[in-house]
């Protein structure tokens, strides 16, 4: 079971996070075909994010009470269906609703998948980083696969982008045939003050990353080369850097500890985002890569820290850390769009450097938690039988 599950979960994670990566890819096409301004397209980022940020912690609470492995394939299909529907309607409100469906699918997926991943890996830093890597691979593949499809057929070709969701659903269907153990026995004390500080760090990181990814394609088209290819290439570099950062995060945590690794990563992120905004020409691609690495080194560490701070509420911790990480930054997307309309995309990106600075300050208040439960025992309690 273990080897199969280790394969199924990262592949499923890639399938659902593919649709998070598509949202910024859609932005240039929405501007070109439907003539939306920066504020208008930022509404799509908000629609994909707001519902997810609200619903995902709720699903975390539910998965602490009941095992719901069926959420994994069902939510993957919902995420893909929302993106497909964007190409089938010219109505702005209906398109927003379709993207909201994608956000709902993303929200339903992550808490249960993260809980299952912890059961298999026992909370090991490197093991959890490989689970997180699946999501980063999905992000990275989004511009590579979606940009050519949309460039060839426009938004009308969006229904073809449902295919990864179908494949991901079929791959993870075997999960439906297995039953997951119930909630874990209480092991240690839940450290809510530390978890709240960690949540603030996750929010600040989310604002930085989603703000950068949402407008990076348009910025590169202005600064480097016009056309969708340049913007898609920049997003691929950002997402691929994130994938590398996720793998590095688990390994660096073994050497330095999770909290120290987080602090160093956010320090690098400040300089990298400033470089994206200020360095002219193709050299900015290098800073895009560094920004992706630095902002994703802490990603899986947030998850395991949250689970260790709340050992009796692993689903809730996963829902909050993953929910905030992948969605809450989109809530500020309209504000960033308005700022870009009023000033410039360059100014807006420069403002993003403030958020990793604040994340670093909050991270300095965190401590490395003792392991509050035996991961081997917890894995046995939660293992798929």
The low-confidence parts are: 178-186, 372-385
Give me the number of helical elements. 16
Count the strands?
0
Helix content estimate:
over 70%
Q: Report on the biggest sheet.
A: none
String of helices and strands: HHHHHHHHHHHHHHHH
Q: Which secondary-structure class do the elements indicate?
A: mainly alpha
Report mean pLDDT, rounded to a whole number.
82
How much of the sequence is in beta strands?
A: under 5%
Envelope shape = globular
Question: What is the fold's blueprint, element by element?
Answer:
Elements: H1 2-34, H2 38-65, H3 71-86, H4 92-121, H5 125-153, H6 163-172, H7 192-223, H8 228-256, H9 258-278, H10 284-296, H11 299-309, H12 314-327, H13 333-342, H14 345-351, H15 354-363, H16 375-382
Helix pairs in contact: 1-2, 1-3, 1-4, 1-5, 1-6, 1-7, 1-8, 2-4, 2-12, 2-13, 3-4, 3-6, 4-5, 4-12, 4-16, 5-8, 5-11, 7-8, 7-11, 7-12, 7-15, 8-9, 8-10, 9-10, 9-14, 9-15, 11-12, 13-14
Describe the structure.
With 385 residues, this protein is mostly helical. 78% of the residues lie in helices and 0% in strands. The chain is built from 16 helices and no strands. α1 runs parallel beside α5 (125-153). The protein starts with a helix and ends with a helix.
């Amino acid at each position: 079971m273990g080897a199969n599950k280790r394969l199924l979960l990262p592949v499923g994670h890639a399938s659902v996070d593919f649709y998070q990566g598509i949202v910024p890819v859609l932005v240039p096409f929405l501007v070109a075909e439907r003539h939306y301004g920066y504020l208008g397209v930022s509404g799509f980022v908000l629609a994909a994010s707001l519902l997810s940020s609200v619903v995902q912690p709720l699903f975390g609470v539910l998965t602490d009470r009941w095992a719901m492995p069926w959420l994994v394939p069902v939510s993957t299909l919902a995420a893909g269906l929302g993106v497909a529907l964007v190409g089938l309607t010219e109505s702005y409100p209906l398109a927003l609703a379709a993207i909201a469906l994608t956000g709902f699918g993303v929200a339903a997926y992550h808490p249960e998948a993260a809980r299952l991943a912890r059961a298999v890996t026992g909370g090991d830093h490197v093991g959890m980083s490989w689970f997180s890597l699946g999501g980063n691979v999905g992000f990275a593949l989004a511009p590579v696969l979606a940009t050519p499809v949309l460039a060839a057929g426009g938004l009308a070709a969006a229904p073809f982008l449902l295919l990864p969701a179908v494949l991901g659903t079929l791959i993870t269907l075997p999960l439906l045939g297995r039953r997951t153990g119930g909630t874990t026995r209480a092991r240690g004390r839940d450290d809510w003050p530390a978890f709240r500080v960690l949540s603030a760090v996750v929010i600040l990181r989310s604002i930085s990353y989603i703000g950068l990814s949402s407008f990076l394609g348009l910025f590169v088209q202005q600064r480097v080369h016009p056309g969708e290819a340049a913007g898609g290439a920049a997003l691929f570099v950002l997402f691929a850097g994130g994938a590398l950062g996720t793998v590095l995060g688990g390994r660096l945590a073994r050497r330095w500890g999770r909290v120290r690794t987080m602090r160093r990563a956010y320090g690098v992120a400040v300089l990298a985002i400033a470089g994206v905004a200020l360095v002219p020409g193709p050299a900015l691609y290098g800073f895009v890569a560094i920004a992706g690495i630095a902002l994703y080194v802490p990603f899986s560490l947030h998850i395991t820290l949250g689970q260790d701070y709340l050992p009796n509420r692993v689903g809730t911790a996963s829902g909050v850390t993953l929910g905030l990480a992948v969605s809450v930054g989109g809530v500020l997307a309209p504000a960033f769009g308005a700022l870009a309309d009023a000033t410039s995309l360059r100014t807006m990106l420069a403002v993003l450097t403030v958020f990793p600075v604040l994340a670093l300050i909050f991270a300095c208040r965190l401590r490395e938690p003792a392991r509050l439960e035996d991961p081997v025992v917890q894995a046995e309690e939660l293992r798929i039988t």
